[in-house]
Design brief:
Helix content is 44%, strand content 16%. The protein is α+β, with helices and mostly antiparallel strands and 295 residues long. The protein starts with 10 loop residues before the first helix and ends with a helix.
Length: 295
């Protein structure tokens, strides 16, 4: 299956680019810590993190992060990246920052101590970041209904043919129930991280119950606060997520939880769409498996 070409980045090239762009950094050790959907991420000398975009289209979101994070840091009680190094490679901006200590939340014993309370406070801080300031910083504010209607049309055309008839019927039921319920679009829009996953972007201290940082803000937008509980549900399960929600300081409307679960259920469609984009059948197979399990 053919896919869209992406920017190729490996350890050797990463070391060369950083050495040329920032000669003050004596690059001794490079580890690729993540090959993400939109970026390749490398750890340098155990102290620095460098992130290289895979797509030219990511230039807008990189610039958005550069502008957003200094303002956001003032509103947060936990560390977020501070970009000390901003460079160019083939006209695409890449960034570097001092590594925030910690490991992904999902790899910790997240049910210990008061991690849920800490995380509830952090998500509340995120959602209280002023919308007017986010707008000034050019954070996107999509029409939530139109965005999901368009995605639904696209997957019916591109993804449904890969699914058996029974799975298609279940998917139609889930999607149309969501789109037809006006309560799903009556939320108060807030600033959201939009990819707050427990297996990558929430960091914790593995030795004691402490959230140490939140990373990767490139998908941030103004939208539904429920979406920032979806990654937790996916990676840290229902019990922990409900503990976080119980201490959350934002507005929880009557459809809040159902929306968070809906976004979890349709996650497989995003995975399949990404697999189609880059021509990788593994993502497609994983996405179909997810849909078969949760729909």
């Amino acid at each position: 299956m053919g896919g869209l070409s992406v920017t190729e980045m490996d350890i050797k090239l990463c070391k060369k680019i950083i050495g040329k762009s920032f000669p003050q950094i004596h690059v001794e050790r490079v580890i690729q810590v993540l090959e993400g959907w939109s970026s390749d991420v490398f750890e340098i000398n155990g102290r620095l993190i460098f992130k290289f975009p895979k797509w030219p289209e990511r230039e807008r979101t990189t610039q958005m992060e550069i502008n957003l994070l200094p303002e956001l840091a003032e509103a947060m009680s936990v560390q977020i990246p501070h970009f000390e190094f901003i460079g160019k490679h083939k006209n695409e901006t890449f960034i570097g920052y001092r590594k925030i200590p910690g490991v992904p939340l999902a790899s910790c014993n997240y049910n210990r101590g008061n991690l849920a309370t800490q995380l509830a406070k952090i998500i509340t801080e995120i959602h209280r970041f002023p919308v007017h300031l986010a707008t000034k910083l050019k954070i996107p504010k999509p029409n939530w209904r139109m965005e999901h209607e368009e995605f639904y049309r696209r997957i019916r055309d591109k993804v449904f043919p890969l699914m058996n008839e029974a799975l298609q019927e279940r998917a139609v039921s889930v999607w149309e129930e969501f789109l037809e319920n006006e309560d799903n679009f009556r939320f108060e829009p807030v600033f959201v991280h939009r990819d707050l996953s427990g297996d990558q972007h929430i960091l914790c201290n593995p030795e004691r119950p402490e959230i140490t940082g939140i990373i990767d803000w490139e998908d941030s937008s103004i939208g539904d606060p429920a979406i920032d509980f979806t990654g937790l549900y996916w990676d840290c399960k229902e019990k922990f997520t409900k503990r976080v929600l119980a201490d959350y300081g934002g507005k929880v409307d009557k459809a809040f939880w159902k929306r968070a679960i809906f976004y979890y259920k349709i996650g497989g469609f995003h995975e399949i769409s990404y697999g189609q984009l880059i021509g990788d059948d593994a993502y497609i197979e994983n996405g179909i498996e997810h849909l078969s399990t949760v729909l």
